[in-house]
Write a sequence for this structure.
RNA sequence: CGGGGAGUGGCGCAGUUUGGUAGCGCGCGCGGUUUGGGACCGCGAGGUCGCAGGUUCAAAUCCUGUCUCCCCGACCA
């Protein structure tokens, strides 16, 4: 992609009414456009980051046997009445609307009911289980107050998966398999080291704990207690002597930290399947309840979380796996030879499968370097009179200040293998 | 939903106390000089001052209502 054709621009100032650092940076760099409080549109660079994160999640969900679907945003009231979640007293952040004929509808804030309902024509026998179904799409929640930029919106992108098991034992197997997949997701996103599986409240219909995935960060709104050796944590909301004893965790090993909840998995028992008449027939011909689990990852929240987590005083710093481009190619001056050299490098890298944002604008050096930093693309390559003269390219990592001069082979090497 | 703050060209702001027909910086367009860390000069385009009503000869400015945004709290992936 050429910068001259990218319709977004960076800006020097940020909207005065945006105080969340993640939204400030993403707006300043042109990754997102704020439509209204808690509602952000993704511009090309932001969309690429969002898609890159989604692709990693999708890959890991598929790897454990997840089957991707797409549920609807418009949902019938009747479905939610069956599980007693339609009443505003039960769920207070619904967006509700009406058909032209007056029939009430809900705008999807979660999809347990729709997913269960959509499985009814297909799941009848023990042979049809176990099963993982997931989707990646927007959720709509009428929060009283949106805040923290992309971390808490009224419309946000979520990956939600649901597991369906024959037995409690089978459910636990499925549950643990997802927990392991989640750790791989966060590892690939570049936040593996600071993300902990965290014991949390299991909700009102189960005695069990749920598991959150919390990324330690000063921008976090949650408080957790981390056991670094065991690589686990416990949420402050259940931090009592009694639960510590039950979990076999020693108070002395715990350190208090601020964190962002990036994922949450919990057992649903058969609450939704029973309520919506989804049963299976076992080997003996008896009808049995289906044990469900629910597994969420806040995809758009991760965009904001990662943006803010890694940013420095110059701007964004994307982990390699999710950056919108791998290389930011700067053409410093605009004489014919430099243009020819930079154009050729651009074509060359692209045909090698390396994604390049090519700053071919007729702008001054300072502006290009500042934009390179602000946009946070991992590798910066400069073509200038100096480099052309020596027949090399200048390479620099966003995370480091050292620059190196490299020939084409060496450059390609560092861009693909990091060496 | 309770408390606080704010709405003036695309963005950041001044002007409101003391009514007199809207200004600055950035950005944008044109011309020129520049070119390794956000250059400079000249010319230019762009705003019914959130919206609605009212007071007045005259309203960005005063009054009433209303919408929106932000912060703190409660709630929440």
């Amino acid at each position: 992609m050429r910068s001259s054709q990218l319709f977004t621009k960076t800006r020097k100032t940020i909207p005065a009414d945006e105080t969340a650092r993640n939204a400030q940076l993403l707006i300043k760099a042109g990754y997102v456009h704020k439509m209204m409080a808690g509602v952000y549109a993704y511009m090309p660079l932001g969309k690429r980051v969002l898609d890159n994160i989604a692709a990693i999640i999708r890959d890991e969900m598929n790897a454990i046997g997840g089957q991707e679907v797409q549920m609807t945003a418009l949902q019938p009231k009747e479905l939610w009445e069956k599980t007693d979640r339609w009443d505003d007293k039960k769920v207070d952040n619904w967006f509700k609307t009406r058909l032209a004929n007056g029939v009430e509808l809900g705008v999807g804030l979660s999809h347990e009911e729709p997913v269960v309902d959509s499985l009814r024509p297909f799941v009848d026998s023990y042979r049809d289980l176990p099963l993982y179904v997931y989707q990646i799409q927007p959720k709509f929640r009428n929060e009283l107050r949106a805040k923290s930029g992309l971390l808490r919106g009224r419309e946000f992108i979520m990956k939600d998966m649901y597991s369906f098991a024959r037995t409690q034992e089978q459910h636990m197997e499925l549950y643990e398999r997802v927990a392991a997949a989640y750790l791989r997701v966060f590892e690939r996103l570049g936040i593996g080291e600071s993300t902990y599986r965290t014991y949390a409240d299991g909700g009102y219909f189960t005695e069990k704990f749920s598991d959150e995935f919390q990324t330690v960060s000063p921008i976090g709104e949650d408080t957790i207690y981390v056991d670094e050796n065991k690589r686990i944590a416990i949420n402050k909301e259940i931090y009592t002597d009694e639960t510590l004893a039950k979990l076999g965790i020693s108070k002395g090993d715990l350190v208090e930290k601020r964190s962002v909840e990036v994922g949450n998995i919990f057992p649903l028992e058969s609450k939704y399947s029973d309520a919506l008449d989804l049963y299976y027939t076992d080997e003996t011909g008896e009808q049995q309840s289906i044990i469900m689990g629910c597994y969420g990852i806040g995809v758009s929240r991760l965009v904001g979380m990662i943006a803010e987590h890694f940013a420095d005083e110059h701007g964004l710093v994307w982990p390699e796996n999710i950056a919108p481009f791998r290389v930011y190619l700067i053409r410093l001056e605009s004489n014919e030879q430099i243009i020819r050299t930079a154009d050729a490098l651009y074509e060359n890298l692209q045909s090698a499968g390396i994604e390049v944002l090519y700053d071919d604008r007729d702008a001054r050096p300072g502006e290009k370097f500042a934009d390179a930093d602000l946009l946070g693309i991992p590798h910066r390559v400069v073509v200038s009179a100096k480099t052309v003269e020596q027949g090399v390219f200048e390479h620099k990592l966003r995370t480091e200040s050292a620059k190196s001069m490299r020939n084409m082979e060496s450059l390609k090497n560092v861009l693909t293998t990091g060496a």
About this structure: The longest strand of chain A covers residues 254-269. Chain A has a mean pLDDT of 94.
